[in-house]
Design goal:
By secondary structure, the chain is mainly α. Helices cover 68% and strands 0% of the residues. Helix 1 (2-17) packs across helix 8.
């Protein structure tokens, strides 16, 4: 179990360390294009037998599935990203009449999907139906978070600072001992623990410098987000605090005010009943 936790932590650290190698700038981080197989496997509630029916592909995706084999056959060395871009450009230039067969196929498949989904949900128990709703909400929340991260990357949000071990691992991963990634991670962790203090201090200083870099960059980025009206992308601790709303008077406070006036008036009348003249009573009332 200890080795498993060690490997899991190492994989997480490796992903952070090599994130800079997977993209060259902030815009490149969000301009990924998925292959057709991604849409075919992920555009459904489930692919298991007896599960809910799959959502049908829309008209554009049906065109992609049809055109991809032809383009790949004509250009064997072409990258999948270029294939998708080429198909997308063709789709944009097509007329409504040319798109109609794909759109109509989607509409028929969508109608059938709705019928199949109703039949499936009718067979579910209340507990199973509630579980399906919970899972659906979790999936939607995850997708929303992914879109939010992509948007922040497209707006140039700075990368978080790396730790001293992250920097050490990124520099020595290639020559690390072991044939597999978990083996390399374990050897790197062992080397890091046995590293002399003065050598380790070099990486700790680099990590501190990276923290300062991140602090300055994130401050400038958040100031820019405020200028363009995107306060929702700011960290919670840096979001401007809203002015507290004015406290409304409660029903008890509203009712208490007239009672105070009645009490004062009653005191004057009571005093008049004890022998005060009408003139004195009038003078007291005028002063109030």
């Amino acid at each position: 179990m200890a080795h498993f936790n060690l490997m899991t932590a190492g994989v997480s650290l490796l992903a952070k360390s090599f994130s800079a190698l997977s993209c060259t700038n902030s815009l490149a981080r969000c301009t990924s294009v998925h292959p057709v197989s991604f849409f075919l496997t992920s555009r459904g509630l489930t692919a298991q037998a007896g599960g809910p029916p799959k959502r049908p592909l829309n008209g554009y995706m049906r065109y992609v599935v049809q055109q991809q084999p032809t383009i790949v056959q004509q250009n064997p060395a072409i990258k999948i990203t270029e294939v998708i871009r080429k198909i997308a450009q063709e789709w944009r230039l097509m007329s409504a009449e040319q798109k109609r067969p794909f759109v109509e196929d989607f509409q028929r498949a969508r109608d059938q999907f709705k019928l199949d989904l109703k039949r499936y949900e009718a067979k579910l128990t209340p507990a199973e139906f509630e579980q399906q709703a919970i899972e659906r909400k979790q999936v939607m929340a995850k997708r929303k978070e992914i879109r939010r991260k992509r948007e922040m990357n497209s707006l140039g949000k700075p990368k978080r600072p790396r730790s001293a071990f992250n920097i050490y691992m990124s520099e020595h991963f290639v020559e690390a001992r072991g044939l597999t990634m978990p083996a390399k991670l374990i050897s790197l962790m062992d080397d890091w623990r046995s590293l002399l203090g003065y050598k380790k201090q070099v990486y700790m200083q680099l990590a501190e410098d990276d923290k300062i870099r991140y602090k300055n960059e994130i401050k400038s980025w958040e100031e820019h987000m405020l200028e363009i009206g995107r306060e929702d992308l700011l960290r919670e601790q840096t979001r401007p605090k809203k002015a507290p709303a004015k406290k409304r008077a409660t029903k008890k406070e509203v009712k208490a005010k007239p009672k105070a006036k009645k009490t004062a008036t009653a005191g004057v009348v009571k005093a008049a009943g004890k022998g005060m003249t009408a003139g004195k009573v009038t003078a007291i009332r005028s002063k109030k």
